[in-house]
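hey can u run this one w/ cobalamin bound, need the structure tokens asap thx
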Amino acid sequence: MRDVAMAAGAVGYGVTSVAPFDDVRVTMEQRKSSGMSGLLGFTFRDPESATNVGETFPWARRLVVVATTYLPEAGSPADTVPGTGRIARFATDLHYRQLAEVLDAVVLDLVARGFLAEAVHDDARLVDRAAAVRAGVGWWGKNTMVLTPGYGPWILLGSVVTDAELPLDSPMSRTCGTCAACLPACPTGALVEPGVLDARLCIAYWLQTPGVIPLEIRTAVGDRVYGCDECLDACPPGQMLLSRATVERGRVDLVALLTAADRELEGDTEHWYVPKRDMDYVRRNALIAIGNGADRSHVGIVAGWLGNGSSMLRSHAAWALGEIGGDQARDALDAAARIETDDDVAAEITYAFARCGQRPEVR
Ligand code: B12
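ok here u go:
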């Protein structure tokens, strides 16, 4: 079975039982009760079933876990390029496609031998990382990522649930040891302890979560429009592979994101997790990145969103104008303040107007 997976493109493989991941369930319930999981759905919606695959698949006897890598082809975003936003490497293309192909190859092989088999990855039915660690595919990183030799954190994980009683693999004994490079690398301190992520501080979380992005997170978002790689970039086991990811990828024109129609945006972001596939969340992220870019030539396009029907977009447009600054931005905010009826948006406009005065006059 390992040969089938490796031949299909896997870089990690292991088999584990379907015994419940009780320790993970306890951790997830703690993250929920402490609020650290924020508004997360996915596995956090029902930790009981996400950590007990036998509940969803009563016939299951084994998890065949595989890893695929998206480097070096995912490339690297060139350093900050004015007017562009940054996409995390796992989303520069449909990198989950290769994972799905490997899982399909394993399923086909098992079914051909008369077994039941179903592929599971990135959904609410299984905690992919815990399965990978118990199957010996990798070890738990302090950035909460599963790390594997030679690839570090640059892997995606998936499993095939099967009734085939395949030989079991054992977890790796390897750990991060004294290394903790990822913790200080997080721009918002979301890794509050080794192995503990407070999602409410995580940039990747906010860029895929509905609602208004908290003020204290916005500046740290920088030019990111989807995902965040900081705690992966800092991870030593992944450096060798990262140094080979030289193709420039992962940059998107911010004005294009703000002028494109839904249909076009849906096509460009098909492999992003966008709440309810509502493209206003992509526009929201673009407004934050354009605000952080502080380029005066963007005042006109941003000011256009002060009249939008979405209070969320009006709020982020106001904030962006405050960050860009200058007379034109201030005038646009002043005009918006006269007609704005939503109290929260009005408060954002007032804050941004004050920020305008604090910005350097000419850039
Ligand atoms: C919810 C989710 C998120 C959330 C929350 C992430 C989180 N840490 O929980 C958000 C939106 C923030 C997110 C972000 C990202 N995600 Co995500 N996400 C998921 C999802 C859907 C569920 C994860 C889950 O159930 N977490 C449960 C919590 C409790 O687990 P945990 O935080 O990992 O904590 C464990 C460890 O830290 C460990 N632990 C506890 N204490 C200690 C102490 C020490 C010292 C150590 C070492 C470990 C340790 O035990 C905990 C479990 O009990 C999975 C897919 C799936 N169905 O599993 C993908 C998944 C985890 N994500 C993935 C990816 C690629 C990412 C991003 C890199 C994407 C990006 N570039 O933006 C970032 C990375 C951010 C990060 N550092 O986690 C991959 C990770 C692959 C890998 N190599 O680990 C997965 C597995 C998807 C896939 N199928 O490949 N994600």
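Residues 2-71+93-162 form a domain with the NADH Oxidase fold (CATH 3.40.109). anyway lmk if its weird
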